[in-house]
Every structure is written in structure tokens, then in C-alpha cells.
Amino acid sequence: MRTFIALVLVTIVLGLFGAAALGVARLEGHIADAQEQLATLQYDAAKDSLAEATKYADHSRWVPFLGRDERQEIRARNAALQYWKKDYDTLVPATEARWDNVSCGSARCSSMYACSRSTPAGVKAGLTRRPRRARVE
Prior knowledge:
Layout: H1 2-39, H2 43-60, H3 67-84, H4 88-91, E1 113-114, H5 120-124, E2 128-129
Antiparallel strand pairs: 1-2
């Protein structure tokens, strides 16, 4: 009787492990499909693959050494997808933009463009071209 119970318990544990491994394989397959579709400019198909991967990623957090990294990977690929689709408003909403720390000496306003002011109104007015300096010979 003990051996039968032990065999049943081992079967259940191995079945749970196999189901978790199958879920991880499907998750990685969907992420790989999304990467391939993103590389071939099939943005709608990549979005669908990332949506399917998200379903598996929610359950994969219970698998050690996998869950958190894969969810971050999906978020990063989703952000890349939004970037390539030029969907900048959902990538960084305008209400979250912080212009308090922008100054004309920062790297953001370097080379041939300069900010008129470091306020949102100055930035909305557009970047102005710096006048060329006269050469002294």
C-alpha cells in the first residue's frame, strides 16, 4: 500500500512539473514568435503573440527563476512594438512628462538645437535652431 501511495504522489509531482514545463515552453514560443514577427514588420501579429505570452507569463511567476524576468521581457518587447508602430502617446503619456529638470545646458538640448525655455510651453513651442557663430580668421 505504501508503494502505491508513493507512486501516486510521484506521478502527481511529475505531472505538475511537466505541466509547468509545458507552460514555460509555450511562453517562450510566443515570445520567440513575437520577436520574429517584429523583425519582419508584422506588428499586429507580434501584438497578438505578446498578448498570448502575457497569459502564460502570469502563471509562470510560480516557476522558480523564470516568472519575473519573462514578464519584464514581455513589457520591454511590448514597448519596442509601440515604438516601432510610432505609438508614442501610449509608450510615454504626455501627462507623465516632467520638464522641471530640463535645462538648455543638458544633453537633451545639445549640438545644433536649443530650448527656448525649460518649461513645457517653451518645449511645445518647438526647438529653435542655434545661430551659427561667425568664424574669426
